[in-house]
Amino acid sequence: MCGIIGYIGKEKAGDILIEGLRRLEYRGYDSAGIATIDNGQIKIIKSVGKLRQLEKILRNSSLSGNIGIGHTRWATHGKPSDENAHPHSDCHNQIVVVHNGIIENYIELREELIKKGHKIVSETDTEIIAHLIEEYHKNHSFEEAVSLSLKNLKGAYALGILHSQHPDTIIAARLGSPLIIGLGENEHFIASDIPAILSHTRQIIFLDEEEMAIIKADEVKVTDLNGCIKSKTFHQITWDPIMAEKDGYKHFMLKEIHEQPRAIEDTMRGNLKEDDIFLDEVKLSSEDIDKIKKVFIVACGTSYHAALVGKFMLEELSLIPTEVDIGSEFRYRQPLIDDKVLFITISQSGETADSIAALREAKRKGAKVISICNVLGSTITRESDGVIYTHAGPEIGVASTKAFTTQLVALYMFSIYLGRRKRALSPQKAKELILELRKLPQCVINVLKSAEEIKNYTKYYFKCNDFLFLGRGINYPIALEGALKLKEISYIHAEGYPAGEMKHGPIALIDENMPVVTIATESKVYDKILSNIEEVKARDGIVIALANSDNQRIMDIANHVTHISKINELLSPVLNVIPLQMLAYYIAEKRGCDVDQPRNLAKSVTVE
Ligand code: F6R
Fold first, then answer.
1. Phi and psi torsions of 152, nearest 5°
2. What's the pLDDT at 155?
3. Regions in the chain scoring below 50 on pLDDT
4. What residue owns the CA closest to ligand 1's atom 16?
5. Which pLDDT does position 29 carry in this prediction?
6. What is the DSSP letter of 87?
């Protein structure tokens, strides 16, 4: 949720921290702050609001020091305010902490600390960590004081900690929230996400659960909470830092929409053979595959919509019954999960708390777990038996776009893979499906050519209060996704419906003010969708349609038609969602909304 950055080395820490925070701001942005150690003294600067507020204060201050930690906050405990912004310190301003996650037992800890004479000034759960370390530091070393404090915490944390008496050390720790260490030459970094430090280093260590790192400019030591040394491997990150920049587009979201042909190509790369798919990292043996009687897919938000599409693909190509659930719902019911279930978690970030909880529950019940994920080394990938990586690259815009289409490609490839191994698909059929997949990047390029035309017609609709999105079959989840995109970035009320349900209620809403976006590309239910369009028109509704170019009837009746290249029905959701992403984008942009950082939303939802 929040973003953490830390630096120790020879450079001025303040500048590096601010640059890192700028790249992390998408994770949370109601307040921000940094702390450095300058001549043995902790200096803290923080401010409510966007990062530019903090930068303004910094310009008028003389914050020096070669060691520091920084934070962008998305409030969980305590309103956004200067007092609640991180970093937080102890009574004597000697220990300072930045934190991502939630401490569940902070109320009890707070009461105990107050009884011992600590003066707690913020409403956050984070501040008590600094006081707890202060308390233990009376009788223990800095390192011991941190590990003893961590043993008292229940909940989730990624932490960066400084002590003014130890100006050569940052201590970092993680439980439940991601944290990485970047390795430089006589300088080191900590961050909650790779883009924050990519311009400085590509050598990364991923901290694991309940690990602590004692970081100096020339040394990194990782231990468990009992001080036992852990040996860690380095990962070389291949992302180009420019990939994390806007690349000339007005917003990250628009850039990411236009990156989809490349992202899809990268996701397919190396996995396609002429009549089969090879997914080495799913790590399913032939015994594992023989065992599978059912697939269960769990995810949240946009990734959940991908899961709904995946159900159609898996059932059609592998003939295995597939159930789909939302992460936050799954763990509170009692679905039958055992070792005959293949459990799939889909997540862009790999850090979504509800999806992680579902994955752990499925594993506990004996299911084999694989994940479809965009972030290498994330919690979900590390806890899964196997992974299919979507190679979308870093997704900065809060509204998910390229992560979604690459998830669909991963699901399509996996359905062919499973279908072949379950002998539900002939080599010939697999060959045809793979040929269609190879056409996809070019078809996406063709759809992206409608950007100007979509931008033009949004001028008629950006002031509307409500939108309806209709789709059927495998494109019903795309209606849900179109509605989600519009509401999250433009704040317009929008609903996605299966088109056949319209007559059972939503038709009452239709009048001359209601745009109805209808997905009407060729499919088994094409004629029925056409009838739905006629019903909307008969009630003076506005019809925006997606259709293949050879359908004259739609051209005649719809107010606007976006042409979609023909592709097999199972891949049609990948093409159909793109005009809906652009529709949401241009409407939000015309309404002057903060497209990349919509209100109340964060990129990675690491709390339940
Ligand atoms: C919507 C959006 C969210 C995420 C959801 C799950 O545009 O981005 O709905 O899809 O929070 O996130 P991941 O995929 O990271 O698990």
1. -85, -10
2. 85
3. none
4. 347
5. 66
6. P
DSSP letters spanning 514-537: -EEEEE--SSTTHHHHHHHHHHHH
Paired tokens of 189? 């970094």
Average model confidence (pLDDT) for the chain?
93
Around ligand 1, the residues with Cβ closer than 6 Å are 300-303, 347-349, 352, 355, 399-400, 488, 604-605
C-alpha of residue 404 to centroid of ligand 1, in Å: 9
525 by Cβ neighbours in 10 Å (0-12 / 13-18 / 19+) ranks as buried
CATH for 449-590 (3.20.20.80, 3.40.50.720, 3.40.50.10490, 3.50.50.60): 3.40.50.10490
Answer whether 3-245 and 254-444 agree in fold: no
Hey, which of 298, 302, 374, 486 would you mutate to test ligand 1's pocket, going by the most ligand atoms within 8 Å of its Cβ? 302
Cβ–Cβ under 8 Å, residues 491 and 500: no
* Domain 3-245, classified CATH 3.40.50.300, yes or no: no
121 Cα–ligand 1 center, Å: 34
Q: Which fold has domain 254-444?
A: Rossmann fold (3.40.50)
pLDDT of residue 453: 96
Question: Which residue's CA lies nearest to atom 7 of ligand 1?
Answer: 399
Burial of 276 (0-12, 13-18, 19+ CB in 10 A): middle
Pocket test for ligand 1, best of 349, 395, 595 (most atoms within 8 A of CB): 349
Instruction: Provide the 10 A C-beta neighbour count for residue 363.
Output: 16
535-573 burial code (b ≥16 CB/10 A, e <16): bbbeeebbbbbbbbeebeebeebbebbbbbbebebbbbb
Please give the positions annotated as active site.
2, 603
Return the ligand 1 atom nearest residue 401 CA.
Answer: 7
Residue 585: half-sphere exposure toward Cβ, Cα within 13 Å: 27
The domain locations on the chain are: 3-245, 254-444, 449-590
